[in-house]
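User: If only I could read backbone structure tokens as easily as an amino acid sequence. Underneath my words sits a plain record pairing an amino acid chain with its backbone structure tokens. This is the protein in question:
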Amino acid sequence: MSGHEFETYFEHSGGIDTTDTATAIDETTIAELKQLAGRYPHPPSALLPMLHLVQSVDGRVSPRGVEVCAEILGLTEAQVSGVATFYTMYKRHPAGKHHLGVCTTALCAVMGGDALLQTVEDKLGIKPDETTSDGLFSLERVECNAACDFAPVMMVNWEFMDNMTPDKAIALLDDLAAGKEVHPTRGAALTSWKDNERVLAGFNDGRADEGVSAGEASLRGVEIARERGWTAGAPDERN
């Protein structure tokens, strides 16, 4: 078989950059990391939210973040690094204030995801897994955004921008660069990637009920069922 049959788009996803030792983790952060560990009967179960908290402070999984998580949880730094480099949501290098994710998998690709990604690359002058020189934007090629009914989908700081087009993407980037308030298709107004990382860590920002929670395409089946009087039936009737 030729080597071209197994093309990968994740060749830059290697290990954590141990040469970049910059960190903003302080005693407050360490106390919050310990707080997260205390929420779980088995403390190592807290590692995923703890890594999100590290990112909310350092903009990536930093060497210091790995060290502190390992100390608190009684793990080796290799174990923490193994988890941090397994999941694509954890960044090896500093992400931008606004982290962009463009899906090019299956349906999104068919609906224009590749063109959408190319537009963002051209507009920002960066490739996936890179950050603009001003630190405002970083870009990621996403392996499915789990929103096929809104394809093609683009995410900003993990918030959904549905039914995107190249023109919509350019307007979105211009608004973000200008510091304008931007609302995703579903969810609260955009803040920053670091802010959302703190929420993913488990710290409530009080904005969970802002914005639209579900899109029209997702609710269409429920609406049709109500119109036609369809029900799932009682549990004993489903056998």
Remarks:
- DSSP finds nine helices and four strands in the chain.
